[in-house]
Amino acid sequence: MTLPDPVSRARAEGRSLLSEAEAKRLLEGFGLAITTEGLVSRVQELEGVLDSIPPPWVMKVAAPDLPHKSDAGGVAVGIETREVAEKTFHRLLETVSRARPGLRIHGILVQEHVRGAVAELLLGSKRDEQFGPVIVLGLGGLFTELYDDLSMRVAPVDEAEALRMIEELRAAPLLRGYRAQPEADIPALARAVAALSRLAVDLEREIAEIDINPLMVLPSGQGVKVADALVVLSREAEP
Amino acid sequence: MSSIDAAMVPDLDPLFRPRSVAIIGASANPAKFGYQVVTNLLAGGFAGAIYPINPRAADIAGLRVFPTLDAIPGPIDLAALVVPASETLEQVRACAGRGVRGVVIITSGFAESSPAGQLQQAEMAAVARAAGLRLVGPNCEGVVNIREGLVLSFSMMFHGLRAGPVSIVSQSGAYCGVVARRLHRGGVGSAKVISSGNEADLKAVDYLEYLAGDPETSVIGAHLEGIWEPRRFADRVGEIASRKPLVINKTGRTEVGRRQTASHTGVLAGSDRVVDALLRQRGVVRTRHLDQMVDALVTLASQPPLTGMRVAILSSAGGMAVELADLLTEAGFSVPPLAPVTEEALRAHVPAFGTVTNPVDFTGALIGSPAEVGECLQAVLTDPGIDAVVLVITAVRDPAFARVVLELRQKTKRPLLVCWTAGTEVAGPALEQLVSAEMSVYESPLRAVQGLEALARHWRFRLSTDFMDPQR
Q1: Is the minimum CB–CB distance between A134 and chain B shorter than 8 Å?
Q2: Nearest Cβ partner of B277 from A129, A130, A152?
Q3: Which long-range contacts (CB under 8 A, 24 or more apart) does B271-278 make?
Q4: Nearest CA of chain A to the CA of B386: how many Å?
Q5: Which residues pair with A59 in a beta bridge?
Q6: A156 preceded by cis ω (within 30°)?
């Protein structure tokens, strides 16, 4: 198959990491819903992007070689006004340039701040040496490693199998509506898992790892949304 | 997932139903493997022709000896190699030239010991492939087909095994004998046993596919340290598990365990979590150690389908019932209240100081009244809210209890596990009665729970939404 643009572009530039925006474009191409966002490379473009996304906003440094943006002080959330957005634009660039001199920076990614999620999950894939792509679902954010609550399958994973993966999570009761929490859109989550599986199988030779973290799981009927994503290409395309 | 294509399943009949067997490297010295392989075939009662091959000996265990393969008059279906590693390649070539259809390479010293051994092993596989003959091993204990009396192995572990429904494949030779003997002790017989060794040609998945179609096998157990041709394994194993209960004991989970694995059969163990996920999604019962594997096989082979997670405990001792209830709950089972009518039936027999709620303690007061225990058991077995029953019998030797249990087993469609803890020294004749009726006895609450867990893993997958699952 022909390679999706973000992959061929990264390959052409000799990169093994996709930027967040590229990663999301790749995921979107396989049917995953992503946050509304726009890349701002010069401050003059900021206003236009802010106009197109309802506040509050999240702003992130867009740097393909910086997979863990928040560790470098490259993420700001809950931005409500244009004034703060403009200040944040400059502050993020300064902070990251100081922390990582010489880093290639594409600009600042402005995106909607997803609210009302029932759960923030990690959805990922990893190419196993023996069995090929493996799909992983777990509690996202900081909790992934802390609670070690993961369910795993060898791809391909269809929606029915994805539902079984969801049921295996210790966090499953949370998704079914824990105490006063709303019920999560579990069918949409299952579709997202199956979509990632298709991507991982179709691009098996190209992709070493994918981390969607967090995947915002919204209440019933509202779907799921990729809020951040990391794609690591394989060193060389496997023959 | 592709289904099993009959044309793709290797024809292993020459391995299991040979009309003639040659032992290359047969020896007249009783201390040598080359002697033991011959005498094991004789002792097993193998009815086909046995041809010991040795250029110097004239008589081995009373059999005529041939100097070479070519000196044998008739066709040869199967050969065992018990020659030094340096001679195996030449012997595989000789077998290919002579039209032998299967070769069991018992000799060690290949991929498990050196890169040169790895090459030599690959060369033997290439010769076999070109000639259309199949190799078992190298570095293995051989193959056994109980009903044919075929004990093509140097091991002493396969004699007197009862014929039954379980077939075993193991990369480790030692597991073959131990598992078969433990099944035998549990009242469950074996069909075929394959020590697959280094799997230079035939891989574990080939044997599993053959066994899935083998009418003499109804439950399959495999002990694997690593998985060769993992994609093919992943592709086929689900279909195999959908045809027969499949238990895979996969070891090499830890770094230390893997180090031993790498030097042992030369397989790089995959990340255990991935293997675990794969086996789970394909409906395989995965176990982690020998006891768990044996309990899984024994229980799957001897118990009817389990249709839910609700277990009743009926015990002659309160303490044992409590441990069992804990272990069952931790394993995801429930030990729910019994129906009022059941409790009423129990109250007619259980003394006031006992307990008629689940877990039921009928107390030592009833150990002189097997008939009354039988009625209690009958009551819980017919409770509509119960999917399986574990009967715990402690300090009892009366074989009448065994008769009661066997009678009720005939009447029920539910799993009934007996955990009789007195042991053979105390309750030998009673236990023997159960075991000879293929009714396994679990020596501890843990062993019974391990058995039930295997039933639950298998039947939950197989029955899908028809399985009563409290978690759904």
Answers
A1: yes
A2: A152
A3: B271/A128, B273/A150, B273/A152, B274/A128, B274/A130, B274/A131, B274/A134, B274/A152, B274/A154, B275/B227, B275/B250, B276/A152, B276/B250, B277/A134, B277/A151, B277/A152, B277/A153, B277/A154, B278/A131, B278/A153, B278/A154, B278/B234, B278/B237
A4: 24
A5: A76, A110
A6: yes
Task: Please report, as a single letter, which amino acid is at residue B59.
Answer: D
- Determine the Cα–Cα distance for residues B158 and B45; give it in Å rounded to an integer: 12
Q: How far is Cα B68 from Cα B21, in angstroms, rounded to an integer?
A: 13
How would you classify the pairing of strands A119-128 and A207-217? antiparallel
Provide ipTM, 2 decimals: 0.87
Which residues of chain B have a CB within 8 Å of the CB of A134?
Answer: 274, 277
What is the residue-level pLDDT of chain B in tens, covering all 472 positions?
Answer: 445 555 567 789 999 999 999 999 999 999 999 999 999 999 999 999 999 999 999 899 999 999 999 999 999 999 999 999 999 999 999 999 999 999 999 999 999 999 999 999 999 999 999 999 999 999 999 999 999 999 999 999 999 999 999 999 999 999 999 999 999 999 999 999 999 999 999 999 999 999 999 999 999 999 999 999 999 999 999 999 999 999 999 998 776 665 555 444 334 434 888 999 999 999 999 999 999 999 999 999 999 999 999 999 999 988 999 999 999 999 999 999 999 999 999 999 999 999 999 999 999 888 889 999 999 999 999 999 999 999 999 988 889 999 999 999 999 999 999 999 988 899 899 999 999 999 989 999 999 999 999 999 999 999 988 998 765 5
Gap between the Cα atoms of B64 and B49, Å rounded = 11
Comparing alpha-carbon positions, the chain B residue that sits nearest to A161 is: B281
User: Closest-CA residue in chain A for B271?
Assistant: A128
Pick the closest to residue B361 from B408, B320, B415, B409 (CA basis).
Answer: B320
Task: State the count of interchain CB pairs (< 8 A) between A and B.
Answer: 39
Q: Which residues of B touch A167 (CB under 8 A)?
A: 471-472
Q: State both tokens at B62.
A: 């009373």
Is the entire prediction scored with pTM above 0.90? Answer: yes
Does the beta-carbon distance from B271 to A152 stay under 8 Å?
Answer: no
* Residue B8 burial class via C-beta count within 10 angstroms: exposed 0-12, middle 13-18, buried 19 and up: exposed
The values of phi and psi at residue A58, to 5°, are -110, 135
Question: Helices B445-463 and B290-302: crossing angle, nearest 10°?
Answer: 60
User: CA of A216 to nearest chain B CA: how many angstroms apart?
Assistant: 24
Please state, in angstroms and rounded to a whole number, the distance separating the CA atoms of residues A167 and A151. 9
Chain B residues with CB under 8 Å of A132 CB are 231, 234
Q: For residue B315, give the nearest of B188, B409, B451, B448 by alpha carbon.
A: B448
- Chain A residue nearest residue B280, CA to CA: A153
Report d(CA A71, CA A230) in Å as an integer. 15
Determine the distance in angstroms separating the CA of A226 from the nearest CA of chain B, rounded to an integer: 25
